[in-house]
Automatic annotation (TrEMBL):
One GO CC term on file: cytoplasm
UniProt keywords, alphabetically: 4Fe-4S, Cytoplasm, Iron, Iron-sulfur, Kinase, Metal-binding, Transferase, Two-component regulatory system
Superkingdom as given in the UniProt entry: Bacteria
Obligatory cofactor(s): [4Fe-4S] cluster
Protein name: Oxygen sensor histidine kinase NreB
Reaction it catalyzes: ATP + protein L-histidine = ADP + protein N-phospho-L-histidine
SMART domains noted in UniProt: GAF (SM00065), HATPase_c (SM00387)
Pfam families: GAF_2, HATPase_c, HisKA_3
Length: 381
């Protein structure tokens, strides 16, 4: 049975639909190349996406076996006719590619090609690839059919659709990269908020134990038990950060009780006096409670670590439309603009991120010499 290329509108339409069914760049390219080869009845087809270094970021072929492909060796560079298609952005229809003055030879294992049709794939003014075919199948035993003007027009249509499919695939890859970057940043914030604070307390407690070990072994033993507890909690927090669980205490006790307990612990552990008051706050949605707890923890941590305050107050209050968390210290204060510009610190960025993430906002009120108030406000119904 003689081979006949699929033809007509239905075949073209099938090829175009196939191109747009895939989102992964490589699958898109493979479909384009296979469709082009089939529709134009060529022995070989290829598509190259150039990189910025004179080579190809992607190069997909159809009509060459895997063994042959391996034997050919490294990917081609942008030279000869390939370069002409990419840089001059013009179609190339040649009766015999080997006789063209720009032809620079092939690697040993490269299949022999004669008639050639190549087109740039363009997105606006930018050439984003080149699509090309070689050796049109020929019913005449003597060969020499070559690609026709009609073939060129058909390939032109394919190249235009290939541009759309390629651009979509690029956007898809970009959006997937963004999702991964967001996930990485969430994890970084989470680790910073929960785990680094636990480790900080752990280090303090271990230092206290070391200082006590000779003088007061019994108390040192108590501190060491505390070290073990904190280490266990750090492990739990780490696990929670990775699978995005809520801190266990919130589920069991709710936000008000959890905050009160944590404040009491800090009050005992630090020389500063740390207080907690709450007014009229019933349970909030889980995500808001968690965000509030994380913001309170970071603000407390900053106040105790950076401000030298004698007094730190935490309050949680509810009006008809909002719930407001406030952490105030009477310490040294700082210039929020300078810190923001410095860009190295994660704590303030993370607090803002958390407030925004639950539809709320964060206000940082501080200046050198005046103490600091961090306020987080979330809407509530
Ligand atoms: N309550 C505060 N009183 C005084 N200075 C503060 C206070 N809160 C923050 N700062 C200043 O702002 C800086 C940034 O705080 P931020 O929490 O963003 O980062 P950090 O605490 O330095 O490091 P980390 O990323 O571990 O939180 C601190 O280094 C400190 O100089
Ligand atoms: Mg901090």
């Amino acid at each position: 049975m003689s081979h006949r290329p699929p033809s007509g509108l239905a075949a073209v339409s099938a090829a175009l639909l196939a191109m747009n069914r895939h989102l992964e760049m490589r699958d898109v390219l493979k479909t384009i190349v296979a469709s082009a080869r089939e529709l134009l009845d060529a022995e070989y087809a290829a598509l190259g996406v150039p990189d910025d270094h004179g080579g190809f970021a992607q190069f997909v072929v159809d009509g060459v076996s895997d063994e042959q492909w391996k034997a050919i060796g490294p990917l081609p560079r942008q030279h000869g006719i390939l370069a002409a298609m990419l840089h001059e952005a013009k179609p190339q229809r040649l009766a015999d590619v080997r006789k063209d003055p720009r032809f620079e030879g092939w690697p040993d294992a490269h299949p022999d090609m004669s008639d050639f049709l190549g087109l740039p794939i363009q997105d606006g003014d930018e050439t984003i690839g080149a699509l090309f075919l070689a050796n049109k199948r020929c019913p005449r035993p003597t060969g020499g059919c070559g690609f026709t003007e009609e073939d060129e027009e058909l390939l032109e249509i394919l190249a235009q659709h290939a541009a759309i499919a390629l651009t979509n695939a690029r956007l898809y890859e970009r959006s997937r990269e963004l999702t991964i970057a967001e996930e990485r940043s969430r994890l970084a914030h989470e680790l910073h908020d929960a785990v680094s604070q636990k480790l900080f307390s752990l280090r303090l407690t271990a230092q206290a134990a070391a200082a006590l070990v000779d003088r007061d072994p019994v108390r040192a033993k108590g501190e060491l038990q505390q070290v073990a507890t904190l280490a266990g909690e750090a492990v739990d927090e780490l696990r929670a950060a990775v699978v995005e669980l809520r801190p266990a205490a919130l589920d069991e006790d709710g936000l008000v009780a959890t905050l009160r307990t944590q404040v009491q612990v800090l009050d005992r552990a630090h020389s500063a006096r740390v207080t907690f008051t709450s007014a009229g706050v019933r349970a909030l949605p889980a995500a808001q409670e968690e965000a509030m707890l994380r913001v309170a923890q970071e603000a407390l941590h900053n106040a105790l670590r950076h401000s030298g305050a004698g007094q730190v107050d935490v309050s949680l209050a509810r009006s008809t439309t909002t719930a407001v968390l406030r952490i105030t210290d009477d310490g040294c204060g700082f210039d929020p603009d300078v810190v923001r510009r410095a860009g190295r610190h994660l704590g303030l960025v993370s607090m803002r991120h958390r407030a925004g993430g639950v539809g709320g906002r964060l206000v940082v009120d501080s200046e050198p010499g005046t103490g600091t108030t961090i306020q987080m406000e979330v809407p509530c119904g």
